[in-house]
Structure formats: C-alpha cells, structure tokens
Amino acid sequence: MKEMLAKGEWPEDERFLYTGYQTAGRGQTGNSWESEADKNLLCSILLPPRQNLFELNVAVSVAVHRMINCQLSIVNSQLTIKWPNDIYWQNKKVAGILVENAIIGSEVKYSIAGIGLNVNQTTFVSNAPNPVSLKQITGKDYDIHGLMKQLDTELQEQLSNVQCPMSNDQYYKSHLYRKDGFWPFVERDVSTAPTMNATPQTEGIFMARIEDVLPTGEIVLRDQQGTPHQYHFKQVRYVI
Length: 240
Prior knowledge:
alpha+beta; six-stranded antiparallel beta sheet; 2 domains; five-stranded antiparallel beta sheet; 5 helices; SH3 type barrels; 30% strand; single chain; BirA Bifunctional Protein, domain 2
C-alpha cells in the first residue's frame, strides 16, 4: 500500500488492503511477524491524517482490542494492550499493530495501520517468543473476513473519537498490560537488533510500575525508590 500511495496508484475510495499471507511481515523495532497462509487476519488500513500521531495509535489499539474482546467474552479480563500497541492475552501476543506515517515538512500526508491478528493458526515455528491465536484460546474456528468487517466498524467508531480523544485515552490506560503493581523492565539500546532475535537480557533489569502514558506516547515508570523515568518505546521494554 505504501509504495502504491507514494506513486499515486492507490484508488481514492479504497482503505483496506487484505492479504492471506505475508513473506516478511514487520512489527515495531524491526521485529518480524509469522503467519501461516490464510490462517490469520493481515491487513493494511489507510487512515485519515492526524497531527497527533499517538492519538491515532491509541485509536487503532483500542479498536483492535475491542474487536478481539467481543470474540473472547468469557476471558475478556485477560486481554490487554501492551504499550505501545501490541494486544496480549495473558502473557502472549495475539495481535500486533504498526502505524506508519508519511510526513512531508511538518504535515502528515497519510498514515497506514498494519495489523496482524493470529486467528486460526495453531502451530508457530519461528523464533517469535510468545504468540497465541484466537483458536488456541477458545478452540473455535473464525471467519477471517467477518472479523475484518468487525474491525472496520470498530475502527471507524474509534477514529471518530480522535476528535475528542479522552474516551480512547481512558480505555487505553485502563486496559494496559501489567498496569497494576511493580514489574520487571530493562532499558535497551535504541540501535539494538529486533527484540525477538536478541539474547535474553538479565543485567540492568529494574522493577517499576506504570504511572502514565503521555499524549506524545512516552511511558512514565516509577521505580521502587519512587523515582520517575520517562521512555520512548524504543528505549525500554518489558521483561516477560
């Protein structure tokens, strides 16, 4: 989609690009995304440009979380949003989101949300550390195109809230992964390799609790000594 937009070849009335298979799906910080052919929901969605880019990220995360939650009604309390925008069930990743923006000067020309949701796949063979699918959680098979329609409905609703982002912001923060209590984190070099390929790091781990996520997207952690620390998403990661 990004290449077609750059060349002016993308149809003006189209927003969705769905694919049944990806040979090189990408996630945050260069991580890859494994997907068995025609088993998962893999799509790119053209979004209206917004100057506050993290509000857009929050809206997409909330839409994906709400859509999945509708499928997991008996276990919905275990579905969370892992900052900045992965969707987790318990300690496993069920969906990943990557929002990319085309910026010329100070103007956002367009944004694209790439979404990967593990749906009917039950065997994962890559080095992705903790994947899980809807079928693994519930034992049910899902209609992928039906899920995509539900996602579109949710996304349109949450994007309308971007004009008044407080409701999305409250939902996002109330469903954050590990939002209560102290949990292990580790600072990371912003130039490091993708996290899924990195050697597990045991040095430099510190315990902290999530105090806030700022409108600009940085997370604020408060350590056990009471000192606050502010991080961009590339500067710190959860230890899981």
